[in-house]
Predict the 3D structure of the following.
Amino acid sequence: MENELAGLRRDLLKFARLQLRDDALAEDAVQETFAAALSGLSRFSQRAQMKTWVFAILKNKIVDILRERARQPQATAAIEEIPDDAYDDLFDERGHWRDETSPTAWGNPEASLNSRQFWQVLEICLTRLPEKTARVFLMREVLGLETEEICKELVMSPTNCMVVLHRARMGLRLCLDDRWFHGETRNA
Amino acid sequence: MLNCKEATTLMSRGMDGKLTLWQKAGLRLHLMACDGCTHFSRQIGFLREALRRLPEEGGERPGE
């Protein structure tokens, strides 16, 4: 049990750091999660269930922290992080994919979900997204908040919010395409 | 007729909000004719699926 908790703690911390990009805040969130979780731990006989439950507590903590942080004035600059023309090179002058950039099949990507290396590459790719962009994107895709809610929390217009999400998706897709699905490191 | 750049924007937008009927129809028409965008559409769908599983899957797993 000791070992499992230490492993779980490491996973939680990694997850919190990825979202918050602040070691001290991540540490606090995980501490609080453990404090909140401790009372209920004995209810779970299966490791997987417990993990899901503890992560759900951590997700809520992270949402709280992000909400708090969104009220600070510097929170809204996500729109400027990935420039407007960042992905223009992918398309020709008529706005169609160029031959060399047109997306090609990823085969059976679901198989990658069982590969530990895949999750490492995904994490690297997420870390490469600019900080505020990543935060908006993770609020949407990992924490599962509604777009409207995110825009409101971050005091962004819905249009800007969706632009940030789109650019994040473009960036992450390219990175995974390059580093995993068509990259040298492929190893499923 | 939509170009690919517009189509990718709409696909993303459709994942974060509602598209109008016209937008949906235009997108469907474009996807029927465009392999690149069809792959793109599947791939951003896969990204969502993977990210939803990040908390449980992202860490070390037993026996590894």
Notes: The interface with chain A takes residues 3-6, 8-9, 12-13, 15-17, 34-37, 39-40, 42-44, 46-62, 64 of chain B (CB under 8 Å). The mean pLDDT of chain B is 90. The two ends of chain B are 50 Å apart (CA to CA). Residues 4-51 of chain B form one domain.
